[in-house]
Amino acid sequence: MKLSIVALAFLAVALAAPQGDKKPIEIISSNSEMNADGSYSFDFESADGTKVSESGNQKQVGPKPEDIGTVSKGSYSFTTPDGVVLTVNWVADENGFQATGDHLPTPPPMPEHVVKMLADLKAAGLL
């Protein structure tokens, strides 16, 4: 029993060891700021071209005084294996998380009959 536990421990250590000759990616710049009012910002860039930036602050997001939340916005970019730089800009607030980027899919336009139906429902006071 003890031998199998020791063998499993050695196996776990072997599997956790770094595979191949991958080296850690160097962080070439890093900044962060945290303020007493709850606002913050940070950004960093790594040697492989990855960039991350975020800022946020406290905001009243509901009718009650205790309905305070953090709203944030930021972006990140990275280079794909085929050399294309992709950037995502995002906002996270009382409306949820919304990300935009040229490479992200977008919904197709709403069909005309649906637009008309919604306008008719709104005009009838049903929406």
From TrEMBL:
Transmembrane segments: none annotated. Residues 1-16 form the signal peptide. It holds the Pfam family Chitin_bind_4. Keywords: Cuticle, Signal. InterPro entries: Cuticle_Struct_Prot, Insect_cuticle. Residues 47-73 are annotated as: Disordered. It comes from the Eukaryota. This is Endocuticle structural glycoprotein SgAbd-2. It comes from Daphnia magna.
